[in-house]
Specification:
Length: about 290
């Protein structure tokens, strides 16, 4: 195992690329330059999205593996770890943009957080594009390619893409979820992402959301089939697994970073919910 999982910025992920805020390329061309990098586990400090138009393989995001199919769009946020395995003949589009890319363009700096595929929850980050929408979505990606677009045009086209994909996601959902419930759940997930190291109890999150703990639990059970406590634990475990990919960090250091009382408490917590010790999980990454 490498001493630390590599974390790439936009310039370092693609040879000869000098723009810090944006990269748009055809996927086959991108893979020719970065084959080894994408096939080993790595992280990004930027937003990443890709659509496949042909080919097959697998994509692992935060330790969840997906089967790659044509006309899937994958979204990732900074801090996530992933790796690809492709069979020959893969093509499509890939877009990288920095967290600052929209800052001078959007009044609401948290606008991207409204989209479920930017939640950081890997199961929400893969969207299958239906046949009747493929032409439109492909056209958006084509218009973002460097020979046809400048930065502001790419910003507009990306927002169009996000809105179209959000609409597709809503149509393919098994049921329509009231907007107010969606908003509360989105805010809860955002709060967890910001405070999971220091805030561990559902009642504390309920206070931040101005609702009762019972209401929060009922909402989580209704929308996700999980308790609020389970969602908090899942986020802590995800961060623990991300950190365990870095062999330079000791178990004690990880426990301290995640605000556990001691090493043994963290080990018991991890073992209980993952079925393996932190050290065992780390060894499984070899």
């Amino acid at each position: 195992m490498k001493t630390a999982i590599p974390v790439y910025d936009i310039c370092s992920i693609s040879k000869g690329h000098h723009q810090q805020d944006l990269l748009v390329e055809r996927l086959d061309h991108y893979l020719q330059k970065n084959y080894q990098k994408v096939h080993t586990q790595h992280g990004h400090d930027f937003y990443h999205l890709a659509m496949f138009t042909k080919g097959s393989g697998t994509h692992t995001i935060d330790f969840t593996t997906f089967t790659v199919k044509p006309f899937q769009v994958y979204f990732m946020v900074p801090g996530q770890v992933h790796s690809w395995y492709f069979r020959p003949g893969v093509d499509g589009y890939i877009v990288h943009f920095s967290a600052a890319f929209f800052h001078s363009f959007l009044l609401n700096q948290d606008y991207l957080e409204r989209f479920p595929f930017f939640s950081g929850n890997s199961k929400d980050q893969v969207v299958n594009i239906p046949v009747n929408a493929r032409k439109q979505i492909t056209s958006v990606f084509e218009n973002m390619l460097p020979e046809t677009a400048v930065h502001d045009m790419v910003r507009v086209l990306l927002l169009e893409l996000f809105l179209r994909v959000e609409k597709i996601s809503a149509r393919t959902a098994q049921r329509t979820i009231p907007q107010q419930k969606q908003l509360v759940m989105r805010n809860f997930r955002q709060l967890i992402n910001k405070h999971f190291r220091t805030i561990k109890l559902p009642k504390e999150y309920a206070e931040l959301l101005y609702i009762t703990p019972n209401h929060l639990n009922a909402l989580c059970q209704d929308l996700l089939g999980k308790t609020a406590g389970e969602l908090i634990r899942e986020r802590i475990l995800l961060e623990a697994k991300r950190m365990l990919t870095n062999a330079d960090l000791t178990i004690t250091q990880i426990a301290y970073d995640l605000n556990f009382q001691d090493n043994s408490y963290f080990t018991r917590f991890f073992s209980k919910y993952e079925g393996v010790t932190p050290d065992g999980f780390r060894k499984s990454l070899n």
